[in-house]
Every structure is written in C-alpha cells, then in structure tokens.
Amino acid sequence: MSTETQLEQLENAIRQRSQSLADSHIKAAQQQRDKILADSNKRLRQREERETEVIQMAAEQEYRRQVQAGEIKMQAVLDQLRWTLVQSVMNDLQTHLKQLCQQETAYLDLLKQYLKSAVLLFEDTELVVEVNANDHARLAPQWDNFVKDCVPDKQCTLSDNTQNVTGGLLVRNQADRIRVDNTFEGLIARLENELYQAITAQLFASATPTRNL
C-alpha cells in the first residue's frame, strides 16, 4: 500500500473520529440544554403554582373576612331588631298596667296581695304605706277596712307623701330604714332580667339568642 493511500486512510479516520466526537459533544450539549430548559420550566411551574396558591389563599381569606363582616353586621341588625321588639313588649306591659289600675276590683285585690307580701318582711307592727296620688284618693276613704282585710295584725298608716309611679305600693317602717318597693316600677326593676328572658323565650322560641337581653 502506497504512502498516499495510508495518509488518506489516516486522514479519513481522523475526520470520522472528529465528526464522531463533535456529534457526541453536540448531543451532550443538546441534552444539557434540554435538561436546563426542563429544570427551568419546572421551577417556573412551581413558582407559578406557589404564586397561584398564595393568590388563592389571599382570595379565600378576603372572602372569609367579607363573609364574617357580613355575618357580624347582620347579627348586629338582628340584635337591634330583637331588642326593639322586646322594648315594644315592655311598653305594652306599661300600657297593660295602666289599664289594670282602672279595673277597681281586680286592682284593689292586687294591692292587698302586695301589702300582705310586703309586711311579712317586717318585724315592726307600725308601718307606713305610700302610693301614687290617684290610689291615695281611692284608698283614703276605705283605708281602715282595706288594712283589716289583708293585714289585721299590723298598724299601717297611709302616707300623704305620694309616689310618682304607675301603681302598686311602697311599704316602709316608721324610721324609714327598711323599705319594700312593691310598686309596678319597683317590681319591674327587680324582675327585669326574668321579664326579658320570658319575653325573649316567647318571641324567639325557635331561635337561639345571640346575647342575654
């Protein structure tokens, strides 16, 4: 084999080897490029997913905040309506008590009950009873018989000092150290919580109260 032929073969072998190495490097570079792009796209997707999650969480928090704010506002409106309704019933109670005062027999019987229950709390035998101006005018002419009918063992004086109340009576001892307020206003004040609870129970029997009225 001639020298030229050998050189040509050697040159072809070198060229093929070079091409093979070049192809191998190009392939490796392409794979590396694809890997870098894939990693970059993966990180980008992960970042987008995290940002989407953050946005969704923020949107959900804002939605819950708005819902809670709406519920609080609605609850406040309902509480106000309930309170207004309860107060309306209390006003109706005052009207009923005024009408009761006009029913002579029933009202006098009620006053006797109030006097009986009040004097039980006193050891004193001499007591003073105060009523409003209308009841004073009504009771004064029959006071002795009135007292005998309900508390014959007590000496009760009808005071000329009248109370500015709707009805009922106030009983005190002579020294004015002990008082039992059985006026309508006094009874309502003592029983206020029970009255509100009873009214609320009747008005909102099917609803859960949101607060103690």
Give the count of structural domains: 2
The main sheet orders its strands as: 2-1-3-4
What proportion strand?
A: 5-15%
| Number of helices, where a helix is a run of at least 4 consecutive DSSP H or I residues | 6
Q: Give the SSE order as H and E letters.
A: HHEHHEEEHH
Relative helix content: 55-70%
Count of β-strands: 4
Task: State the distance separating the first and last CA atoms.
Answer: 119 Å
The shape is: rod-shaped
Largest sheet: 4 strands, mixed
What's the Cα radius of gyration?
A: 48 Å
Low-confidence stretches: 208-213
Overall residue-averaged pLDDT value: 83
Structural class: alpha+beta
Which key features would you list for this structure?
single chain; 213 residues; alpha+beta; hypothetical protein PF0899 fold; 2 domains; 4-stranded mixed β-sheet; 6 helices; disordered C terminus
Task: Give a written overview of the molecule.
By secondary structure, the protein is of the alpha+beta class. It folds into two domains: 1-102; 104-193, ATP synthase, E subunit, C-terminal (hypothetical protein PF0899 fold), CATH 3.30.2320. It is 70% helix and 9% strand. The chain has helices spanning 3-101, 104-119, 133-139, 143-150, 184-190, 192-203; strands at 126-130, 155-158, 168-173, 179-183. A four-stranded mixed sheet has the order 2-1-3-4. A hairpin with a 5-residue loop joins strand 3 (168-173) and strand 4 (179-183). Residues 208-213 have low confidence and may be disordered.
